[in-house]
Amino acid sequence: MLRNLKSRFGRTLFFLPFMALATLNHGFSHEPTNSKKISGPQRREVRIPIRDFRLIDQNGRSFDFKTVRDKVVVLAFAYTTCPDVCPLTTAAMRQIQMGFDRIERSSVYFITVTTDPEVDNPKVLAVYAKRYGVDLSDWAFVTGEEVVLRGIWKNFGVRVVRKARGLVDHTSLTAVIDRTGTMRFAYYGTAPDPKVVIEDVRSLLAHRSNS
Asked: What is the C-alpha separation between 206 and 100, in angstroms, rounded?
């Protein structure tokens, strides 16, 4: 009996590091830093100033964040070869875009920032946008040099680790940024509920109209 206990104890010790690693990897992809484990998306109200940045859009043109400073911006991080969360996030963003009327759309802008610039060049992003039926009149898919992107990822609190070509582990974040360039709402984890995001965006649009 003592021998059996030692054998079981040894097997437990052997598997503990692998169990811990699996837990960390899962949390890293789908949760904010220092948050509790969650089963679904998590919404946070925040106030994080977002610095201006310049990247390249799906048409190969320069995209300056400051050009949309007069709008409420819905911004997400994704990459085109992502097999799980990113497609859900992009589909949710498309639903959000479709949820606004023509007048609201004139005051809202959408941005998808890649987390895999090695693969996601402008042509790849253009094909990806077309796949989801995106209206690009008020939505930019942007990429650029990794050194520039890393500064943007850091500003939003997004951690990115390349595991292999076309396979990236990153914080799943969709953010709403107000007209002053301050991130006000952050949705972590799986794709946010479009209805919730639309309500949050409308609350910021109403603030301008009431001021």
From this structure: 13
